[in-house]
Fold this sequence. Notes:
- The structure is a single chain.
- The protein is α+β, with helices and mostly antiparallel strands.
- Helix content is 29%, strand content 27%.
- The chain has helices at 16-33, 54-57, 76-88; strands at residues 3-12, 37-42, 64-73, 109-114.
- The N and C termini lie close together (12 Å).
Amino acid sequence: xxxxxxxxxxxxxxxxxxxxxxxxxxxxxxxxxxxxxxxxxxxxxxxxxxxxxxxxxxxxxxxxxxxxxxxxxxxxxxxxxxxxxxxxxxxxxxxxxxxxxxxxxxxxxxxxxxxxxxx
Length: 119
């Protein structure tokens, strides 16, 4: 079964184009290094919940939108190898400084997941 890294990110609506540029650059490098798939999705039908929700999870502000992203790898081992190469890639140096991100990286959350069902 594949392995998936998932991300939930609050992005200011005014910086969505800058986020897209960053995401496209990162996705191209990840694919070159061996990632099978990269998806970046902007919330379209996501409402605040009573107890939990995507907006609540990132303390979404009125001028922001939730971005839900995932990267598919062949395996956990492949993911670890690709992520290490990705972080060391000189093309990523300018994108690694949190002060240059078009979003608040302190409110982003992410993790690695084993696939339970694939259909």
